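Sample intake sheet
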Amino acid sequence: MPQITINGEPYEFEKGETILQVAIRNGVEIPHYCWHPGLSVVASCRICLAEVWAPNPRNDNRLEPIPKLLPTCQTPCGEGQAVYTDSPKSIANQKAVMEYLLINHPVDCPVCDQAGECYLQDYSYQYGRGQSRFEEDKIKQPKKDLGPHVLLYSDRCIMCTRCVRFCREVTGTAEIVVEGRGSTEQIDVFPGIALANELSANVIDLCPVGALLDKDFLFQQRVWFLKKTPSIDGITASGDNISTEHNNGQGYRIKPRENLEVNKWWISDEIRYGWKFVHDEARLRLPAVRGEEPFEPAEAPVAYEAAYARAIELIGAAKKLALLASPMLSCEDTFHLAELVERSGRPSVMGVGPIPRSGEDRVFAGGYTIHAEKAPNARGVRRVLGCFDKSVREFDAFLGAIADADTVIVTGNYPSDWVTPKLVEALRGKKVILIDTLPTALVESADVLLPGATWVEKSGTFENAKGRLQAFFRAIEPIDYAKSEAQIAIDLLAAFESGEAAPPGELGAEAFDAARTRGALAARGLQDFVASVHVPEGHGKVEADMVLVDL
């Protein structure tokens, strides 16, 4: 392959690659603001300019300097080129660009939400001057409300135009424009047209400085306190790769995680903000047994003992057992619940819970798709249940098939009330073991209630609309006394087979492990759960690199 030399080190490149792309791929830092791999190249910020030497065919291909600095984001690589970003000319340009950008910048890092993940801050330290020479008054720009999710602090803007290009090229909605000229140039929206498309908040991630900020996250947390855990969209069928950012058991924001095969660099606003039910004050927190007084938090072990005892009594007495597996569950949750039903030895029927839909699939100009199906794992649930029951039923068929079942295990875990009148009617007169996260019409009528954990609070695997299996990891501990459906099923099975219930931790049941469960799925013939599950690279919690000093 052809080679190019960057700061004295040779690197291979493919035809058409730019100098900046080769540098990034090989871990060589070249400062840049306006360039983004998902957007068109405008070469407007000028901080990536570098000194380039190239073979001169008119002089026996000897290396000669190109007279002017070239933008590395726009300049294609050429065989034998030598690029210097650390030469005196390149360094002088970097310092000059940083000085120009900071002339009218308010330098309000202590109160800016972007502090700690700001390119302007980082590059000022790495490439800027140690002292400002500007003594005149700074031009003040207004703060603007662009739409339901985004605020614009105009005086922090460096006019990289990433947000403008995103709305033109990715969403195709073009709400954002550049207004004015020179030092009065500003980002704005067309009069009367808010930034309200379904992908609008991606401009916050694109902004390299603190100009575009998230209303929802504003002043909530310093970013260096946040831990980052790789996850998968848990409320739609897209399977978008995301990062859950959290601190001290509290989720603060969802950010996109780059995956060129799924969501590229973007997520929808629905995914970004639809996780708030995880911290809903109405979350189910304690087990309950119908006919008994509600348990207090201090009685959690007693509550679980009573709930398990009643649940195994119902399972043991069942003439026919039914399982309604929610499409919001992971494949591992589904496996352990189905295993519980199978090992009970009772005749059984299994089905998939209702699959919410909203409108039709929508494909944006840049190729991103918003899926109408609002369940993350309907395909995975069907696939796993098929190992236990060859005639897995969809929701309506399941309701018709449980007429002669006397005990039904029902799972929910939806972000909102999901119970339909048809389900309530089909369960009338039956014994119900309910595992759910939010209050519904079934809570009061269930014989046993066990609080479940949301996808943010557990690990597992989802299968998206395109059949891609993707692993995700627990970001925070389950709320109060809730447990994952998989752990509940493991505990219930241990209690059922031992013949006695006990508080959590005293059953002798194994702790749920997603990787081990995927191995069990492969042993049942689903080899894809070992061979084809996409696991995030370097998975686990990512701690901030900020050094904290006690004063």
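Comment: Residues 199 and 268 are 5 Å apart (CA to CA). The chain has 14 helices and 24 strands.
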